[in-house]
Specification:
Subcellular location: Cytoplasm
CATH superfamily of the largest domain: Type I PLP-dependent aspartate aminotransferase-like (Major domain)
Protein name: Glutamate-1-semialdehyde 2,1-aminomutase
Pfam family, one: Aminotran_3
Helix content: 25-40%
Shape: globular
Oligomer: single chain
Bound molecules: pyridoxal-5'-phosphate
Number of helices: 14
Cofactor: pyridoxal 5'-phosphate
Family: Belongs to the class-III pyridoxal-phosphate-dependent aminotransferase family. HemL subfamily.
Distance between the termini: 27 Å
Radius of gyration: 21 Å
Number of strands: 16
């Protein structure tokens, strides 16, 4: 037994499923998860001393590679002044100013401790502001584990949300309407059938959570126009895309202005941080400026703010990071594509900047139904073949990879080679 396997056996007796977040358990790919001991730059190191090239980067935050020195130093310096005060600090003001500069649609912002908190608060604000109860979300979009978002779009779900997880009440689910991603007509129908009842449409402007799925031309513009027509707020969940697809996120890249934005991951430099913000008139309903209650003992925590500030300042001051991420993304995708062609495979690659997914299906993937046509056992074998070759992928077909600038050209070549060998091994 490896040390990771031993730890997993013990963990299962103490933690539900042995993990503190379900996807880490490798259920979607089989086998036993690797327990990570440390990481530096582009590498992860496990408890058995094995080294892996990182292609998830903590599900997004480590865009500059692990233990990036300015972030590490900011945290070390901040610790000298104690860990938490539960009182306002200068760093929170600096953070708010930096976010509103980098993401201009955000005029006011509130810091929280996770992406889940950010999306839960954003819909409460949308409901408080509009006086409406329902929200529209998209099948396959993940917005954290808040009750309102754990809703599947089964066949009946176009009109009435069906709880996806025991513990979510039918009453809560009924207020969440769902539509297929990239389907404007479905959204229009929901808005027309629920006149003056929809507080907000929330979506990932580029989806990471059914694998990487891009908005088709006109989709985001169409949603923006439908929201305006029906008086619903448009919420971009940029927990994954924020500060990644551009310094101003997907909204900058696609030139669409949402009313509210939720953020997480990169914003905390690897610490547990989220944020939500948007138009000042909307954000002014948040307590204590307004009546919509939302709070947090550790919100705006000084250590977390220090890490996030160091990360965001670096991104704001170094536009070349984004140029390099585009190069890395393109190089990997081109390499993967050449291997597919060489092996006579027609699988689909979706890609934008430093996010991409190789889907084990010959169909184009523009929504969750299409993503579900993938050969999942094949993905499981491919995942383990990559792991064996020292490349750490997301342990599920329905995830995007998140690249960091720490990837060198040499590492990119190694990943491309491992991908080609792993495809052959998985298909043998
Ligand atoms: N929104 C999106 C788009 C996400 O990808 C995630 C997490 O992956 C969340 C919200 C929830 O964030 P957290 O896991 O920090 O609660």
């Amino acid at each position: 037994m490896t040390t990771s396997e031993q730890l997993f056996e013990k963990a299962k007796t103490l933690i539900p499923g042995g993990v503190n977040s379900p996807v880490r358990a490798f259920r979607a790919v089989g086998g036993s998860p690797v327990f990570i001991k440390s990481a530096k730059g582009p590498y992860l190191y496990d408890e058995d001393g094995r080294q892996y090239i990182e292609l998830i980067n903590s599900w997004g935050p480590m865009i500059l590679g692990h233990a990036f020195e300015p972030v590490e130093k900011a945290v070390r310096d901040a610790i000298q002044d104690s860990f938490s005060f539960g009182a306002p600090t200068r760093k929170e003001v600096e953070m708010a100013e930096l976010i509103t500069t980098m993401v201009p649609s955000v005029e006011k912002v509130r810091m929280v401790n996770s992406g889940t908190e950010a999306t839960m608060a954003a819909i409460r604000v949308a409901r408080g502001f509009t006086g409406r109860d329902k929200i529209i979300k998209f099948e396959g979009c993940y917005h954290g584990h808040g009750d309102s978002f754990l809703i599947a779009a089964g066949s009946g779900a176009m009109t009435m949300g069906i709880p996806d997880s025991p513990g979510v009440t039918k009453a809560t689910a009924a207020d969440t309407l769902t539509a297929p991603y990239n389907d404007l007509a479905a959204v229009e129908k929901l808005l027309e059938n629920n006149q003056n009842q929809v507080a907000a449409v929330i979506l990932e402007p580029v989806v990471g959570n059914m694998g990487c799925v891009l908005p088709q031309p006109g989709f985001l513009e169409g949603i923006r126009a439908l929201c305006d027509k029906h008086g619903a707020l448009l919420i971009f969940d940029e927990v994954m895309t924020g500060f990644r697809l551009a310094k101003g996120g997907a909204q900058e890249r696609f030139g669409i202005t949402p009313d509210l934005t939720t953020m997480g991951k990169i914003i905390g430099g690897g610490m547990p941080v989220g944020a939500y913000g948007g138009r000042a008139d909307i954000m002014n309903v948040v307590s204590p400026a307004g009546p919509v209650y939302q709070a947090g003992t550790l919100s705006g925590n000084p250590i977390a703010m220090s890490a996030g500030l160091a990360m965001l300042h670096h991104l704001n001051d170094h536009p070349e990071v984004y140029t390099r991420l585009e190069e890395i993304g393109s190089a990997l995708v081109n390499g993967f594509q050449s291997s597919l062609t060489k092996l006579g495979l027609n699988y689909t690659i979706n890609h934008i900047g430093s996010m991409f997914t190789l889907f084990m299906t010959e169909r184009s993937v523009t929504n969750f139904a299409e993503a579900k046509t993938c050969d999942l056992p094949l993905f499981g074998r491919y995942f383990h073949a990559m792991l064996k070759r020292g490349v750490y992928l997301a342990p599920s077909q329905f995830e995007s990879l998140f690249l960091s600038v720490a990837l060198t050209d040499d590492l990119i070549s190694q990943i491309i080679q491992a991908n080609e060998e792993s495809l052959q091994e998985a298909l043998a």
